[in-house]
Amino acid sequence: MKRTWEQKELNSPLPTMPEYPAMVLKLLALRGITKEEEIRDFLNPDYAKLLDPFIFKDMQLAVDRIWKAIEAKEKITIYSDYDADAITACSVMYLALTKVGGRVSYYIPDRFSEGYGMNVEAIQKIQADGGNLIITVDCGINALVETVEANKLGMDVIITDHHELTGELPKAFAIINPKNPNDNYPYQYLTGVGVAFKVVQALYKSQEARVRNLGVVDGWEKWLLDLVAIGTVADCQSLVGENRILVSFGLKVLQKTMWPGLRALLAAAAARTPYDAFTLGFVVAPRINAAGRIKHADLAFRLLISENILEAQNLALELNELNKHRQLLTEQIVSEARSQLELVMDRKVLLAAGVNWPKGVVGLVAGRLAEEFNRPVLILDKTESHATGSARSTENFDMVMALTNAKDLLVKYGGHKQAAGFTLESTNIDAFYASLLQFADSQNFDVSDPVLRIDAEISGDDLNFETLDYVEKLAPFGFGNSKPKFLTKQMEVIDTQFVGAKSQHVRIRLRINDKIFTAIAFNQPFLGAKLKAGDKIDMVYELSSSEWNGLRQMDLKIIDVETK
């Protein structure tokens, strides 16, 4: 699908800060960072500037209840979801509570038989197993019935979550959620693992002397930041503000991680050092997610908390194989779903349903096809009685609002504006789809060609290591802080070369003025046939660096090309 090139526009003048190049100030301003203190904080993340966890109005209540459970040797059960954000959150909470003497268990529902979130049968099982206190991670904010059931069975529930509230608040002992409308926490973009870490921070801070007396060194909780970084990047939340601090320091911790499971997983995946946000989002997170998508998320959790090197290595190898299987399944279902969607391309919202489409991959399929077709996509696994689906949206279509509009047709649903899950009776699929299309019309939602947003146009003279150094200072990159995209015009093609196991990539040597650059176009083999020596092109690309034989080199990753 052809993309329209559009240069981002500044809405305010650049600050006067001569210590930084205008290019850097512009890149930051395009991310909404214009004040001097914000700029310095962004370029130099400071762990001490994390917000006080006790800003959450229920935080003191929550930590007091947890310490009471630890003292009384009550059984604490962590109730988790099954994606990478939830599994890292469960691991953070489990490791932190056991470190200070908690009697801790966990419950991770089966994606295939139980589905997302809390369920009454699980609550009853937890109580029958001797549970006294339930702490949710990355779920629970919409668990009205389940919380009532837990209370009825004599258990308190502390909800830690970051999902949107779709109805009234549950009757929980305490609720820690930045999206709780009754709270006043100023940063809305914490992930499930980020919220779990805030609880751990508060827990350790509230009883510093007790924690020290238990033999826990000051600041021990920082060893959990690598897990926090993984879940934060995996959940595609903003990497500006608190999340930037958590991920920046999490990456530092990851380089020397103390967790045998993470070390084994990085080795099994042959991850290159130094680790970065790409490592988190495209190497580690998919393997953690593969457990819940194909088998059971318990595998990934046991890996992350393992203290046994041999066990960790075996679990890491198993996750590696599950991830390969997940990739094959995803490709198969993408192909089958695409064939359905191509028949209804006149619609603003696309929906495809299939029998025996693995519930664990429908979200990935929805994401791939939403990007391909540039419109909201819902993918459903359908049985005779019920259908379970995942939705991925575009930036200008609120999927949770759309599902709320159709809630009378749904058994349950939840998520974020651009990613959500839901369950409904199979007989309601057509009515549900009609409701989505009606909602899209009511919101005046329209489908247009995808837009490629360019941060800045630079000349060959600006294409140098100084520019690259400042670009790299903007890392870690991710949602809300995407890697800058540059445009350079009138570059001359010297030659092209197909590379990759299947010749699926193209390496291009380019000249501008008297400088020569090497660029790579991933999965764009058509460029190798289209471009020839002497062609003049305008190119949109990202800058990065690599080392070869001890020498640093500048890499240009091609995003799009226009021939002149």
Helix content: 25-40%
Q: How much β-strand is present in the residues?
A: 15-25%
Q: At CATH's second level, what is the architecture of the largest domain? A: Alpha-Beta Complex
Q: Choose one word for the global shape.
A: globular
Runs with pLDDT <50, length 5+?
A: none
Radius of gyration: 25 Å
* CATH topology group of the largest domain: inorganic pyrophosphatase (n-terminal core)
The CA-CA distance between the termini, in Å, is 20 Å
CATH class of the largest domain: Alpha Beta
Brief characterization of the structure:
Helices cover 39% and strands 21% of the residues. With 564 residues, the chain is an alpha/beta fold. α12 (277-294) packs across α14 (309-341).
Describe this structure in words.
It is a single chain. The chain folds into 3 domains: 53-320, inorganic pyrophosphatase (n-terminal core); 345-442, Diaminopimelate Epimerase, Chain A, domain 1; 454-563, OB fold (Dihydrolipoamide Acetyltransferase, E2P) (Beta Barrel). The protein is 39% helix and 21% strand. The chain is built from 19 helices and 18 strands. The strands form 4 sheets. It has a 5-stranded parallel β-sheet with strand order 3-2-4-5-6, sandwiched between helices. Strands 7-8-9-11-10 form a 5-stranded mixed β-sheet, with helices on both faces. A 5-stranded mixed barrel has the order 14-15-16-18-17. Strand 10 and strand 11 form a beta hairpin. The longest helix has 33 residues, at 309-341. The model has no long low-confidence stretch (mean pLDDT 93).
